[in-house]
Amino acid sequence: MLTDKEFEIQLKSDFLEEAADLVSGFEESLLRLESDMDSETLVHQIFRFIHTFKGSAAVAGFQELAEYAHHFEQLLSLLRNREIKPSVEIFDLLLKGSDDFKSIVKGYSQDPHMSLQTPQRAVLISQIYTIDDKGIPPSTSQATVQTNKTPAPQPRKPLILLVDDEALVLSILQDALDGFEHEFALAKNGQEALEIFKQKGDDIELIISDESMPLMTGRELLSEIRKAGSKVPFIILSGNIGREQALHYLDLGVWSYFPKPSDYDAILVAAKNAIASCRFHRDIEELAMVAARNYLTFHKVAFLLQDKYNCRDPILEKLSDGVQEIGDIVQRLSSRS
Questions:
Q1: Which of 116, 136, 256, 311 could form a disulfide with 306 if both were Cys (CB 3.0 to 4.6 A apart)?
Q2: DSSP states of 43-110 as a string?
């Protein structure tokens, strides 16, 4: 049976072993990002590495390291949300962070109580929080130390994408949805809407589109968006919806369709329901990711507790059952998202 001290030592040792793998993965993804700066997939992957690293450090009791990692998580969050542009300078900052994490993990293996407060780290943190929207940090000599204050980025409003080749219809739709908290993106045909979607797809919570348009129809637009893997709610407006066409819309996952001239009150209700559904599914996906990231940590803690005390203890048995239930929930949430 482990004593309290032995339990703490074991937990920290397990973290340092896991941390080495996380930092290695972080660095590997960074090097791939260097040759593909616009890759959203790599940015998301690197964000997950640092988020897991931060959370595991906190669980193991390395609070100072968790707080240090949080600064880099903030930077990656801005990149992931496209609030700053990827740049060579940002890449260099992240690479410096990766090298420093390696050094810290190695240092903790020799002295788990060492301090992370150094002038070099203070300057690095300051550079993170003074990057401009083009992804350019100030020079080291210009950086102002501000380790105790984390500026909150201004949240962007979600988007509704309106698509119609008639300017009057776009204007009426925008007026009808004026009470929503969203900003609007307008397109006069499917091709133009698809380009907007490629640039701002993560922010779009609803698309309302005409069917018959030049260059690309509403149905073709919906098909392309579904091919891209997006489940964003899609409402179709059409002056001629037959049974066969309606079934095809449903096969593509259209939220609703309305004949023209449209009942804008009915569209308003459908839009509210569609956006609520969109947010629900995004929350489910985020919850699945969070649960998956923490499942192994919970499992490890439960195992160490059982080893330290007694696996027949009813409290520990409930904890073990809870860990298993978390694993089941992860699987269910992943399948739903």
A1: 311
A2: HHHHHHHHHHHHHHHHHHT-HHHHHHHHHHHHHHHHHHTTSS---HHHHHHHHHHHHHHHHHHHHHHH
| CA–CA separation, 152 and 22 (whole Å) | 27
Q: Which run of H or E residues covers position 294?
A: helix 264-308
pLDDT (tens digit per residue) in 170-226 = 888 888 888 888 889 999 999 999 999 988 888 888 999 998 888 898 889 988 988
DSSP 181-200: S-EEEEESSHHHHHHHHHHH
Buried b (16+ CB within 10 A) or exposed e, 192-218: bbbebbeebbbbbbbbbbbbebeebbb
Q: Of all helices (H) and strands (E), which one includes residue 32?
A: helix 4-34
The strand pairing partners of 210, in sequence order, are 237
The letter for the amino acid at 26 is F
Give the pTM: 0.47
Contact predicate 208/193, CB 8 Å: no
Specify whether the CB–CB gap between 275 and 205 falls below 8 A.
Answer: yes
Reduced to 3 states (helix: H, G, I; strand: E, B; else coil), residue 3 is: coil
8 Å CB contact between 86 and 30: no
